[in-house]
Amino acid sequence: MNAPIDYLLHLADNALILGQRNAEWCGHGPILEEDIALANNSLDLIGQARMLYQHAAQLKGGGATEDTLAYFRDVPDFRNYTLCELPHMPLMSATAQGDRDFAITIVRNFLYSSLMVLVWDQLQASKDTHLAAIAAKSLKEVRYHLRHSRDWLLRLGDGTAESHERAQNAINQLLSYTQEFWANSPQETAAVANGTGINTVTLQNDWNQIVNEALQEATLQRPDEGGFVPTGKHGVHSEHLGFVLAEMQSLARTHPQATW
Amino acid sequence: MSTPALKEWPLWEVFVRSKQGLEHKHCGSLHASDSEHALQMARDVYTRRQEGVSIWVVPSASISASEPNDKPEFFDPASDKVYRHPTFYVIPDEVGHM
């Protein structure tokens, strides 16, 4: 039994785009150790994306490879959560320049990892045995990502007045984007139907518990969610994804089929 | 917090055990705010290439070290005591590697 290709792409695109975003810290981390930690996180995510793309490419056939899926698809083809593509800074136009805010990076990694520890755990029982194996490997990685981001969330929230304010602003800005987790897309519904995917909606209580406990410990307030439910996994993205892809895909598109 | 905030994170010494059964070896140091933070950073910096299965971190301030000036009285007296090396015994074959 194989998972629907679009479901694999949804999982892969989440990992690739967040991995690409976190890689932006490479060489710019607040301290050397954190620079390496974020690069490690990024490489874990890109590794997950590769495994998923390889699986999807095999199912897709017609000359598809992990590279064609990562580098030769455009914005509407990407199935990642909008949360993963946002810049590391307060909301602004995609063409505006600003300083990266480490609190945004940490809060996003925390919100995403809190979901993925639950998702990968359940996907270990997927009827797609290839996907189940990827889940088992990814679970270990994302457990560390959660530990790392949760630890920093506590330090920022329960730290200085400035770090608290930045962490609170980050959670205020990002939490509403998590509403996308709980609105099933056609690819998720199809994957649940054939036993290869999981119904993410059933994870909401566990996710809330992880998030609420950490926020409380970090002395941060959970804001009300509401308003617009993002649609990244349907292929309708924020203006930011195009800029991420432009940077990430430019080399492969300038030198197609280049190899090391 | 009653204690004043430190401008600089304290220094930690990092020890990594490369395999079960081997001892932890000193591999470097880093700045971190507390032991949990130090462990995570040591994991990210010193075990990326499968160097370890266990990490210890120790506040550098907790280590008492001999001084370079101690060398004459600490170490030099051992230099002419070759009989302390067990090199004057024939090791029976049955003992194997020592």
Cα-based radius of gyration of chain B, to the nearest Å: 20 Å
Percent strand of chain B: 15-25%
β-sheet strand percentage of chain A: under 5%
Order of helices and strands of chain A: HHHHHHHHHH
Low-confidence spans of chain B: none
Percent of residues in helices of chain A comes to 55-70%
Low-confidence stretches of chain A: none
How many DSSP-defined strands of chain B? 3
Structural class determined from secondary elements of chain B = alpha+beta
Query: What's the CATH topology label of chain A?
Result: Ferritin
The main sheet of chain B orders its strands as: 2-1-3
Q: How would you portray this structure in words?
A:
The complex is a heterodimer of chains A (260) and B (98). Chain A has helices at residues 5-23, 32-60, 66-71, 82-85, 102-123, 129-157, 161-174, 186-193, 204-217, 240-254. Chain A has one domain: Ferritin, core subunit, four-helix bundle (Ferritin, Up-down Bundle). Chain A is built from 10 helices and no strands. Chain B is an alpha+beta fold and 98 residues long. Chain B has a single domain, classed as Roll (Ubiquitin-like (UB roll)). Chain B has helices spanning 35-46, 71-74; strands at residues 11-17, 24-31, 54-59. The longest helix of chain B has 12 residues, at 35-46. The N and C termini of chain B lie far apart (55 Å). The interface between A and B is medium-sized, with 13 and 13 residues. Chain B: It comes from Limnohabitans parvus II-B4. Chain B: This is 1,2-phenylacetyl-CoA epoxidase subunit B.
